[in-house]
Each structure stands twice: as C-alpha cells, then as structure tokens.
C-alpha cells in the first residue's frame, strides 16, 4: 500500500493570482503529487495550498514551491493580517496513509536540509520535527515575525536549524514541520471589533488568557509566588485562536487552528464560540473552512446537529454534510463545495466510483451494452443496496411518525445501520467490475518465458480469488442487511410495511445473484479446499436468505392484511 503524505504550505501572497499560479504550477510539475486545494485570502495576503503524494514526490514538490516562492515574492513589501515571517511561511508535512509520524519527521528534516543546501534559504523545524523543545510551538518560532528577524537571527539561541544565519530581506525564513492533521477554521461574528473577537478567541483557546484582578480589559496582572503571570485556561483543548478584523468581509472573525480534531471537533469549536459570543452580546453569523477537512469531521457535525433537533441520524453522507454546512454557516462567505473541500472526495479515483456516479439510465445502458462488465455481480450488489435503502426509508419514516416522537432514537439506530449496509454495497458495485478487470489484466500478461508464465499464473490465481471474494462479500452484507427489513416489518411504520417487504425481496435476490458469481468464478480454480469452503458457506447464506424472506413477507402480509 502506498505511503501518502499531505503537505500544506502557506505562502505570503494572497492577492496576485499570477504569482500564486506560478507557485502551484511548480508543485504540479513534479510527477507523483496531486494538488488538492488552493485557498487565497486577500485580507491576510496569504495562500494555503494542499497537495498529497508519496513522500519523495512531496518533498520534491515542496522544494520546488519554496524555490518558486523565493523567486516571485518579496517579503520586504508584504503586509497582511496573518502572522508571518517568510515567503513560504510554514511548510508542514502530515502523515496521511500507511506512514508513521517518525517517518514523516525524517522527510521534514530531509526537506529542510535541501532547502538550506540547494536553495541557500534558512528556517526552523517545528512541532514533531522540532530539534529543541522550545521550538516545538509554531507561535514561539514565529514570534517577532518578519520585522523581528534581523535581531532574532543574531541571537545564539535562535540560529536557524538549516541554511545560513544571515537575514534574507527578500525571503525571510521558513518553518518546516511534521504534525497531525490540522483544521484551519474561522468563525464569523456580527462585529467589526478585533478586541471583542479576541475576547472570544481567548475564551475558547486552550491557553486562555492572562488573569487580571480588574477583569479582562483592565486591572493588575495576577502573578504566582515566583512573579509569573497566572493564566486562565480556555474552554477547548488542542485549539489555538486569535481574533482579527477582515476588511474584505466587513466583519471580525475568531481564527482557529484545531490541532487535534479527535480532542476538539469542528462543531465543538463552533458551539464554544457561539456560547462565548452570546455571553458577550454578539452573535455568530457563520464560519469559514480554510483548506481541506476530513469527511469524518463533517459527518460527525451533521449527526450532532440532527441529534439536537431530535431527528434520525440514519441519513446519507450528502444529507449529513448539508446539515453540517447549514448549521455552522460554512457557506456564508461563499459556496461550499464538498467535492473540493473534503479530502477523501479529492482523493477518490474517478475509476473507483465510475458506476455508482452514473444516473439510472446511464447505468442501465452500460449494463445492457456489449461489454461484459458491469455484470451480475455488480447488479447483485446494487439490488442489495436498493433493498436496504427501502428498509432504511421505513426506519426514517417511523422516526418521524406523528405520535411516535419518543421513539425517534430507536428508529434512528436502525436507519444508521441501514445506511452503513447501503454504503458498503454501493462500493461493492464498482469493486465487482474492478475484480473482473483484474482478471482481464492477468489474462493479457505476457507468457513467452518460463518466468512470465509463472508470474501470469500467480496473477490469475490472485485475481480469480478476488473475483470470488467480492461477490461473497455482497452475499454477507446483503444477508446481514435483512435484519433492518425484518425489524421494520415487525414494529416499523405499518403504512410502509410493503416497502420493507420489497426490500427483503431485493436482499434475497442479491444473495442468490452474488452466489451465482461465486460459483462461476470458482469453476477454474484448482485450490479445491478454498473452493469447497466458499461454496459451502455460500449455500448456507442462500438458504438463510430464503428463510428470512419467507419470515419477513409473512410479517408484511400480517401488517397489511
């Protein structure tokens, strides 16, 4: 499996799109990296770029971006709302898939060494890549910003981790780090006051504020026995925040970095700002996501806000995302496109979802064409998905049935189960066709030499077993999904009992149809023990599905008379 690293460099230019494009072109010139997002801000005069790839390609892409930023950005002429001290202000590497933080740190150090030696530019390592404890925190490393660099670089304690120690007025310095996934998130306030936005920021951020005897705005600082200021911690862990006024938007914002979204989620940060702003006589009007966000974060937010409304959580991902966007006002400052802002959607291969992205007519036409795929396996998976979708619909209708308000959570649990089964079966629609394609790829492999024949034979066996495992999985998931239809036929909304029955018919057909694929793909496999096991287990599942179908239809008949 590929090791993937995400890189999120921040460049000190957010107004000149020609300069920004030159930098992103330099990134895209490196083979093996994928540019995911470019997020410029005019008021901050800063652009956040996101790209991913395998480690070596990402390091090269970052190096080329830093080199181009040096050529096209002059820090001596830069101004903006955001703290900064270099043309490429920060360049964090984030472990994304199949790679540890320790490995990512090595690549961050490799990038820093190359920036120093090949480009002659200076910088510091921060977060997990820091070589000294006092340099771990980015705010500490960037203290004094660009204007304070001449004095800072002259201090023995602040010699760069890489590159020359002389001040470069055109470029400044760069902070290169390795860190966990960070969400940059701004909450909009109905005020133009930076001071009041800061008050909210200090309320919510982890380090809080310095305690004062006369209150926040005035008074003597409270100190401990050693004379150090005492801090009042904020409401949220793993959150950094400041307040600022954005002239472009005509409003103040609480600008946050959520450094561990497992500790503090996006919706928790939003709600904390709402609480603080309300207490201080302000109102949160919406929010803004800078860069990308994991799918899980928005799904959790959608479920949170649905639960507050006492509505079923068993809805599609698209609906959960819509609820999250509307509840947090993520579209207040501009359209929010999930395909562009959610990292998993950016990484999804078009081929991996080719069938399920089609409309119904195109899918039917593709199936009816002279191409052998999609075939019975994909259709079986789709039948299973449609079946459990009907069961899920009954659960959601039951959760909203007049007079059943106290039972919404009970039906929500069943609807969520149904959604999970549906999503898994939809993935299997495309996986079955991909399994067939792998067999065809193996058949086309060269077979001229003895080595070629051995390699081809091995590939054929692996592809054939995969072509058995995929429909076998369709059988398992479709059979398991029948629990939803049985439950809804038993105690769901009686007005929709027939829908639960049709769902059971689809699920049973999916099990039987997928079993035909298991049998036909097992025909030429010489691993008899494997084949016998799969056929035996498959036959048992067919019998279970048929028995459940009879049981569910009897319940449906009793319900509808």
Task: Give the SSE string.
Answer: EEHEEHEHEHHEEHEEEEHEHHHHHHHHHH
Largest sheet: 7 strands, mixed
Give the beta-strand count. 13
Mean pLDDT: 94
- Helical amount: 40-55%
CATH architecture of the largest domain: Up-down Bundle
Q: CATH class of the largest domain, please?
A: Mainly Alpha
Helix/sheet category: alpha+beta
CATH superfamily of the largest domain: Formiminotetrahydrofolate cyclodeaminase monomer, up-and-down helical bundle
Using the alpha-carbon principal axes, give the shape: globular
Write the layout of secondary structure elements.
Elements: E1 4-7, E2 10-11, H1 17-28, E3 33-41, E4 46-53, H2 55-72, E5 88-97, H3 101-119, E6 123-127, H4 138-141, H5 149-154, E7 174-178, E8 183-189, H6 194-204, E9 209-210, E10 231-232, E11 239-246, E12 251-258, H7 266-279, E13 284-290, H8 295-308, H9 317-328, H10 338-341, H11 343-347, H12 360-368, H13 376-399, H14 408-443, H15 450-491, H16 497-522, H17 528-560
Parallel strand pairs: 5-7, 6-7
Antiparallel strand pairs: 1-4, 1-5, 2-4, 2-5, 3-4, 8-12, 8-13, 9-10, 11-12
Helix pairs in contact: 1-2, 2-3, 6-7, 8-9, 13-14, 13-15, 13-16, 14-15, 15-16, 15-17, 16-17
Structural notes for this entry:
With 561 residues, the chain is of the alpha+beta class. The protein has three domains: 4-178, Formiminotransferase-cyclodeaminase, Chain B, domain 1; 183-340, Alpha-Beta Plaits (2-Layer Sandwich), CATH 3.30.70.670; 351-560, Formiminotetrahydrofolate cyclodeaminase monomer, up-and-down helical bundle (Four Helix Bundle (Hemerythrin (Met), subunit A), Up-down Bundle). 52% of the residues lie in helices and 14% in strands. It has 17 helices and 13 strands. It has helices at residues 17-28, 55-72, 101-119, 138-141, 149-154, 194-204, 266-279, 295-308, 317-328, 338-341, 343-347, 360-368, 376-399, 408-443, 450-491, 497-522, 528-560; strands at 4-7, 10-11, 33-41, 46-53, 88-97, 123-127, 174-178, 183-189, 209-210, 231-232, 239-246, 251-258, 284-290. Strands 1, 2, 3, 4, 5, 6 and 7 form a seven-stranded mixed sheet that branches. It has a four-stranded antiparallel sheet with strand order 11-12-8-13. Strands 9-10 form a two-stranded antiparallel sheet. The radius of gyration is 29 Å and the shape is globular. The two termini are 55 Å apart. The mean pLDDT is 94.
């Amino acid at each position: 499996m590929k090791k993937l690293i995400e890189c999120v460099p921040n460049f000190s230019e957010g107004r000149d799109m020609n300069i920004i494009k030159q930098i992103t072109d330099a990134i895209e010139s490196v083979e093996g990296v994928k540019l995911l997002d470019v997020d410029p801000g005019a008021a901050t005069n800063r652009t956040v770029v996101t790209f991913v790839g395998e480690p070596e390609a990402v390091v090269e892409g970052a190096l080329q971006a830093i080199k181009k930023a040096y050529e096209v950005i002059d820090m001596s002429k830069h101004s903006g709302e955001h703290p900064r001290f270099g043309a490429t202000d920060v360049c964090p590497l984030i472990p994304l898939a199949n790679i540890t933080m320790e490995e990512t740190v090595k690549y961050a150090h490799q990038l820093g060494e190359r920036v120093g030696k090949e480009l002659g530019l200076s910088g510091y390592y921060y977060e997990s890549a820091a070589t000294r404890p006092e340099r771990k925190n980015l705010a500490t490393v960037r203290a004094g910003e660009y204007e304070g660099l001449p004095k800072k670089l002259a201090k023995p304690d602040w010699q760069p981790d890489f590159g020359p120690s002389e001040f470069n007025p055109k470029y400044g310095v760069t902070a290169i780090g390795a860190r966990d996934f960070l969400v940059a998130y701004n909450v909009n306030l109905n005020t133009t006051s930076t001071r009041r936005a800061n008050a909210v920021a200090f309320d919510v951020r982890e380090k809080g504020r310095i305690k004062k005897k006369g209150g926040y705005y005035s008074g003597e600082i409270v100190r401990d026995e050693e004379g150090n200021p005492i801090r009042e911690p904020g409401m949220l862990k793993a959150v950094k925040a400041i307040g600022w006024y954005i002239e472009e938007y005509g409003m103040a914002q609480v600008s946050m970095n959520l450094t561990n979204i497992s500790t503090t989620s996006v919706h928790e940060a939003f709600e904390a700002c709402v609480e603080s702003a309300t207490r201080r006589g302000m109102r949160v009007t919406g929010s803004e996501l800078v860069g990308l966000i994991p799918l899980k974060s928005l799904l959790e937010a959608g479920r949170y806000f649905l639960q507050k409304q006492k509505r079923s959580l068993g809805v599609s991902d698209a609906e959960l995302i819509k609820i999250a966007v509307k509840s947090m006002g993520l579209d207040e400052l501009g359209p929010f496109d999930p395909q562009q802002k959610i990292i998993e959607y950016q990484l999804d291969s078009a081929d991996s979802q080719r069938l399920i992205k089609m409309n119904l007519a195109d899918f039917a036409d593709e199936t009816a064409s002279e191409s052998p795929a999609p075939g019975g396996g994909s259709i079986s998976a789709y039948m299973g998905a449609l079946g459990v979708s009907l069961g899920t619909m009954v659960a959601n209708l039951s959760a909203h049935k007049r007079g059943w308000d106290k039972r919404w959570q009970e039906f929500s649990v069943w609807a969520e189960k149904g959604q999970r089964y549906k999503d898994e079966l939809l993935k299997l629609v495309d996986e079955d066709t991909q399994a067939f394609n792998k067999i065809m790829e193996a058949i086309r492999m060269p077979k001229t030499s003895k080595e070629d024949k051995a390699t081809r034979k091995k590939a054929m066996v692996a592809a054939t077993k995969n072509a058995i495992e995929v429909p076998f999985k369709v059988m398992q998931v479709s059979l398991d999904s029948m629990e939803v239809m049985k439950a809804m036929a038993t105690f769901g909304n009686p007005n929709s009992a027939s829908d639960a029955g049709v769902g059971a018919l689809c699920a049973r057909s999916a099990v039987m149809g997928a079993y035909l694929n298991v049998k036909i793909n097992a025909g030429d496999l010489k691993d008899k023990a494997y084949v016998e096991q799969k056929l035996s287990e498959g036959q048992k599942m067919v019998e279970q599905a048929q028995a459940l179908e009879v049981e569910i239809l009897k319940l449906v008949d009793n319900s509808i008379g």
